[in-house]
Predict the 3D structure of the following.
Amino acid sequence: MSPNEPPGPDAPPGGEPDQPPGAGADRAPDLAPDLAIDLAADRASERARERALAIGILDLQEGRGTVRLLDDDGIAVILGRARRIALVGASSNPGRPSFAVFRYLLMNGYECVPVNPNERDVLGQPAFRTLTEAAAATGPFDIVDVFRRSELCRPHAIEAVETGAGCLWLQLGVVNWEAAADAAAGGLSVVMNRCTAIEHRALRDRR
């Protein structure tokens, strides 16, 4: 190849001359095996998470859960009585579902407190790093509405019990029976795989 000829598609940057297979292999560490192992582990973890969620949702739909959940009438009562709602995982990003739910509940008269260590405030409401901090600063909550991945919910259930909440509410697509059991054992009512905004709107439309 002449000096002025552009390098071919397999040539290294800068048009260096071709090398025989394996040449230069000892000049840089081979990171591919470690990377492949990490990617495989990530994929396995994601599959396990999706499988656990699917099993949890099936148990919920088929009534095989270990905890009694609020039915439609119970949800109507809790939403009618509630005044203060902590939204764990609330986001100031308008593209996030938690932002839309936060705004809806705020506009419909609820006192909403965002709990998210990555936020300073949501729609002008000061955010707290933990539910414990939020309750200490503002008082206990009628509902703890959780926007987290299912496998991350158990610590929030324990905090809800410890801070004297009335209900643990896991959002649409969020199912964790261990978290539900923790909440129920602490005297809380439990809702899973439902959206507070959707349920409230449905109740309002039926009136």
